[in-house]
Amino acid sequence: MENYDIVIIGGGPAGLAAAVSAYDVGARSILILERDKKLGGILEQCIHNGFGLHTFKEELTGPEYAQRYIDQVKEREIEYRLNTMVLDISAEKVITAMSRADGLFEIQAGSVVLAMGCRERSRGSLNIPGYRPAGIYTAGTAQRLVNMEGMMPGREVVILGSGDIGLIMARRMTFEGAKVKVVAELLPYSGGLRRNIVQCLDDYGIPLKLSHTVIDIEGKERVEGITIAEVDEKRRPIPGTEEHYTCDTLLLSVGLIPENELSRGMGVKINPVTNGPSVNESLETSIPGVFAAGNVLHVHDLVDFVSEEAASAGKNAAAYVQAGGLEGARHEVPVAVEGGPRYTVPVSIDPSRVPESLTVRFRVGDIIRNHFVSVYFDQDRVLHIKRPIMAPGEMEEVKLKKQFFDERPNLSKITIRVEEK
Amino acid sequence: MYDIVIIGAGVTGCSVAHELSRYNAKVCVVDKEDDVCCGTSKANSAIIHAGFDAAAGSMMAKLNLLGNRMMGDLAEDLDIPFKRNGSLVVCLFEEDRPALQKLYENGLANGVEQLRIVEKEELQSLEPNISPDAVAALYAPTAGIICPFTLTFALAENAYTNGVDFRLNTEVTGLHSAKDCWVLETPSGTIETKYVINAAGVYSDVFHNMVSEKKIHITPRRGDYFLLDKNTGNFAVQTIFPQPSKLGKGVLVSPTIHGNTIVGPTAIDIEDKEGTNTTAAGLDDILIKAGSTVKDLPIRQVITSFAGLRAHEDHHEFVIGEVEDAPGFIDCAGIESPGLTSSPAIGKMVGDLLKEKLSLEPNPNFNGKRKGVLDPQELSKKERAKLIKEHPEYGNIICRCEGISEGELLDAIHRPLGAKSMDGLKRRTRQGTGRCQAGFCTPRAMEILARELHVEQSELTKCGGKSKLIVGKTKESI
Amino acid sequence: MDTRNLICISCPLGCPITVTLNGSGEIENVEGYSCPRGEAYARKEVTNPTRIVTSTVRVLGATKGDVMVSCKTKTDVPKGKIFDVIKDINGITVKAPVHIGDVILQNVAGTGVDIVATKEIR
Fold first, then answer.
1. C54-117: what CATH class?
2. pLDDT at residue B477, rounded to an integer
């Protein structure tokens, strides 16, 4: 069996950043396992720009951003294997993988970084009634077909879901000659970035219908029409509000789900709110030496934050191996939420392992205006930041200074609270 | 001229074809769809019923029992996954107990073996997630679960290998009797045959009524279903039914042979013989009813829903036999539940009938053994590693959710009556049936299918006909 | 007096900016931005709106079988010319290898802006 100190599952932005950061703190026995024929992950098909403003102070397209990290991996001669699918990881960190070239093989890892990304929610899991014709695609699959395979999924399009992928694809399909008739969004607000509403819908006169959903799909062989309807506060269709659109394609942008089949298979504890592993301040899961970062941990909006998060995970994975386990007993101070945030990454913090600045990330469950994000260490309020607007579609972060922890040796609980004053 | 032409390549038609392939006879199966198993056979509960439901003395009862008994050996010969997981008809109220007792007695009269009533305590140990309200249940250990696609494909492939012709994309638009034979009209010409087997599912009344004065009437009875994630695979052990009603066996909760949980069906009579669309009302109906027999049904783990149409004849009985005023025309009509279970028995019954009528001699080259699509996940790690070394395509995973490799897709495409569409691949290999519902594997599977069939990807369809997957390449017609 | 409410697209923050124009269409006031790029965007958007356009072109001869290479306008182009730009991009096929930054098409649709590749294709 082969041995590597650090095995990274996934060669997308998270995996690449983790590898580079592990190398830069001295790790040399690193292996990235990637199932596609190239590194870069989902960025390879995200040909639009908007990536890298934080990381590189430039606005890059997805592939350009990915290439910056691929170059760093290659410069450092970090090992990677392509066309390789990981089938299983045991709790003892034995990885079973396969590829055409290498067959079925096993690797004993000293530490593992989970960076598998996420998958898209499907029509089936939403119980959208109707026929099951050709022409129904999740937006990401359509994006892959258009941008990588050069295939056109359809010509007259209805999109369900105003998350960024749906908005981006509205524009992309328009550029490739399709008519995008409407974007329907179940919630009363869009899940995507406001800039994307402007540059993907408004620019092209594509209507956005909030509080609407698809209630029927027509066409036995190929999509022929879609009916949408307005929904009430309980998100149930309101009779009499039906609108019919003739079309040949339905694109779905209705949610991303972290892909944790492998994590579950290992026995890693999963947070039911995020569907990703519950991690501590080092981004370590419930299994010591197994770390997670990127969309597999929680779905991100900006790849820049993925890179930051993954860099921490990589660094900590390297430290774990170098020290034969992370230093200090695992004293976990739980992180609680109040008043708005639905979850935090991490869910617990060991004060003895906090770096100079520790980023805690979270999302709120509703649009919140003119409130404060406060951080309480037991009863002490250590941070109080005014936030004019917070939305579920935009990940928030607070940075906790190490001195906050040093000053409170008997800390028992941290609370991230959204409050009015 | 054929000896026998079978209209309909569903499980009934393919079972008859399979049986007839044991003999020296010129047999042809015709179907309007581009693949075998495109009608009711692809959208049903996938249950091999024990046989206690059907009215005692009916043909349904007789063929159900016989089919159930035959299924074990058939599954082995044709290399089909099949499991006798047992079934439970759950009694939720003491006042319904007499009806349960009657069902039990009906089962005994039908010849069902090992049938018995279990009380609450035993029921709860048999089925941990049974509703706490359940007072008793009728337990039938001989009931089972199967893959209806695999069964139909296996019957078809084996029939084909043993000499039966299959003409797909061939709709029978009319038929009339001529001197000594029947003439079937199709868009690609006429087909002459001595005998016609009407196995046309929801359309079987259309064909019967073309030839006979004594009409039959088929109502498409729609059944909507939910399919739940494999994470729920251990939720139900047996197939769990409520007590039956006029409309049928009711909404069941069952494990599937592949490790999912299936919930359904509804029983909604419609007119449109192509009406396989699910409806909000139908899906809601299942949710209400399914909750009654089990506790905490994990319905939020749904990965897809679908609907199929049962061919319900007015008299709620199979119509099998030579039509009196149309000699040479043999019905296999009204094959609603327990049609899947009965299929081997229907095949045998019709086969025996034709053997006599045509004085058929056995086919000396008949080989009833068929090998299914190799599933590397059933091999040991060592065997799997060896397989990949010799056939690297088994090392290239295409469908991540179900773990299906390129090797399996190639097998499915190149075997007799192989896959020509995405649905064809899906039903032969399970590719695309996982929790991401083909989101990941579609572009990869399309590439392979186009390459192996030597067509452009723009010609690929989901299920034949107009179901093109893409409209063309980007940058073209703009 | 004319008030325009915009969402800045310069970065993912998407600041809501209000621009007030006088009767002759001149900008009188801009407020709501959080950075200089926002102010610049707002001024431009009401006088001469521009966009970066991203798309793909066909590529031949790629070692790993890629058929498309992604590209963008090197700088922003007038919003009104987007579809002319797209039309020109769609007519092109390039040959591998392609490097990030390679000029695929000069002066697309007469805008004076080049189309450059955004992906490495061997």
1. alpha beta
2. 59
